[in-house]
UniProtKB/TrEMBL annotation:
Belongs to the CDP-alcohol phosphatidyltransferase class-I family. It comes from Paractinoplanes deccanensis. The chain crosses the membrane at residues 49-68, 136-154, 199-217, 223-246. This is CDP-alcohol phosphatidyltransferase. PROSITE patterns: CDP_ALCOHOL_P_TRANSF. Keywords: Membrane, Transferase, Transmembrane, Transmembrane helix. Signal peptide: none annotated.
């Protein structure tokens, strides 16, 4: 095409923009669509990563406005807009990697707007349900969602620092079963199969938590049940990561020299 526009193939986009490991929701339900949309918009230099980040936030605010209306048709619209917002949010990183346009400010903007989008959708979804039902349980659930979203980010940040300090490999790397392992070999095959498909064995991460709360719960019109189940699953997987980190640090503690 004229005007210096660069065209990319889907294979090139996959090779240059897909993360080696990602959440199963992203791998299965987002990347196939996001990669095709990236192929459409990547030739246009006016479509920048930061503009996509802002657009994802604006669509997320639209999702929140729908959630606030509380009735099922609006919940359905809010869930669809939230998924679209997440697709756009994945596209900004892909465009940045494809064009080598990543920047510290872009990372900051993406992080801050992600957190604001989650906060707005949490207040709107559970606040709207509280206004409609006057059931105070929705207020407690809103607090639970905000707390867990904060905790999983802080936990990931600190665990990353500890892993870097002590040389702990990434928790989802494909590896062979260690000698003397008590876990069944079939588990290691299953684990490596997931990683080979770019799916993290950490099957219920913060991404799945958000998608279940803001998409699955509204879609099936079971907001309380899905939120509680999602909170339980994410909490269990986070505790598992913490336990694995603890075991590794205990097994590799440096010996203390006598005074």
């Amino acid at each position: 095409m004229g005007g210096g526009m660069t065209l990319y193939t889907l294979d090139e986009i996959r090779a240059r923009t897909y993360k080696p490991k990602d959440a199963w929701w992203t791998v299965l339900l987002v990347d196939p669509l996001a990669a095709r949309l990236v192929r459409l918009v990547a030739p246009f230099r006016s479509v920048t990563p930061n503009r996509l980040t802002v657009l994802a936030f604006v669509v997320g605010v639209g999702s929140a406005l729908c959630f606030w209306r509380a009735s099922y048709p609006w919940l359905l619209a809010g869930a669809l807009l939230f998924h679209l917002s997440f697709v756009l949010d994945c596209m900004d990183g892909k465009i940045a990697r494809l064009r080598d346009e990543s920047s510290p400010f872009g990372s900051w903007l993406d992080y801050v707007l992600d957190r604001l989008r989650v906060l707005a959708c949490t207040v709107a979804l559970f606040g709207g349900q509280y206004q409609a039902t006057h059931d105070f349980a929705y207020v407690w659930l809103a607090g639970l969602v905000i707390f867990l979203d904060m905790f999983r980010y802080l936990n990931a940040l600190q665990m990353g620092k500890v892993r870097a300090e002590i040389g702990l490999p990434e928790p989802d790397a494909a590896v062979d079963a260690p000698a003397g392992a008590t876990v069944a070999p079939s588990w290691w095959k299953y684990r490596n199969l997931l990683v080979g498909r770019r799916i993290r064995p950490h099957l219920f991460s913060g991404i799945e938590f958000m998608m279940f709360v803001f998409i699955v719960g509204p879609l099936v019109h079971q907001i309380v049940a899905v939120t509680l189940l999602s909170a339980l699953l994410m909490g269990a997987f986070e505790l598992l990561l913490i336990y694995r980190l603890y075991r590794f640090t205990q097994a590799h503690r440096p010996s203390l020299s006598p005074l």
